[in-house]
UniProtKB/TrEMBL annotation:
Protein name: Endoplasmic reticulum vesicle transporter C-terminal domain-containing protein
Residue ranges of domain Endoplasmic reticulum vesicle transporter C-terminal in the record: 2-48
Alphabetically ordered keywords of this record: Membrane, Transmembrane, Transmembrane helix
Species per Swiss-Prot/TrEMBL record: Anopheles culicifacies
One Pfam assignment: COPIIcoated_ERV
Amino acid sequence: MQGVAGLYFKYDMSALRVLVRQDRDSIAQFIVRLSSIIAGIVVISGLLSKCMHLVGDACCKRRYEPLILNEANGKGSVTIS
């Protein structure tokens, strides 16, 4: 084949057939998928909350102070010093 150099495409212009079906999942599958989405949201929000607390503690340099049992009144109440 001698001729003009190039990239050539051959298109097939036949008609396409599109078949549309609508299937429904059972109620059990719906509940399982819904509960997994809700559980994922709870887990991600817990992780984000923990990360925000760690960042806030690191930025503000807050340290947790030790708890001291106050046995002076005999009830064993907890006070933070």
